């Protein structure tokens, strides 16, 4: 029968500078600068019954659970990354970032 020999290895311990930095790698984004990402703005939620959902008609109002002055959430891939306030930019919506999460 073949014997399997496993050689021991030694691992280097992390130094304080690596362990305390908080980053797993240096953030050099120069190689990713051309990549586009899709951001979503989450305004609020509404809960309705299926009956109400299927009976909705054009022109009806759906009330969200967020107040008018509540911050909206900027999301990347469904994950919150910032909060901000909606504003008008010409004839489009814009988002003024107030907090990075």
UniProtKB/TrEMBL annotation:
Keywords: Cell membrane, Cell projection, Chemotaxis, Cilium, Flagellar rotation, Flagellum, Membrane. InterPro entries: FliN-like_C, FliN/MopA/SpaO, FliN_T3SS_HrcQb, SpoA-like_sf. Its main location: membrane. It comes from the Bacteria. Gene3D superfamilies: SpoA-like. Residues 32-101 form the Flagellar motor switch protein FliN-like C-terminal domain. It is found in: Cell membrane. Pfam families: FliMN_C. This is Flagellar motor switch protein FliN. It comes from Dyella kyungheensis.
């Amino acid at each position: 029968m073949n014997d399997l020999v496993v050689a021991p290895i030694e691992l280097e311990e992390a130094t304080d500078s690596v362990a305390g930095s908080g980053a797993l790698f240096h953030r050099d984004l120069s190689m990713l600068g051309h990549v586009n990402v899709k951001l979503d703005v989450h305004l609020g939620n509404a809960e309705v019954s299926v009956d109400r959902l299927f009976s909705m008609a054009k022109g009806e109002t759906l009330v969200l659970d967020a107040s008018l002055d509540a911050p909206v959430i900027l999301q990347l891939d469904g994950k919150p990354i910032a909060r901000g306030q909606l504003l008008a930019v010409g004839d489009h919506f814009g988002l003024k970032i107030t907090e990075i999460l």
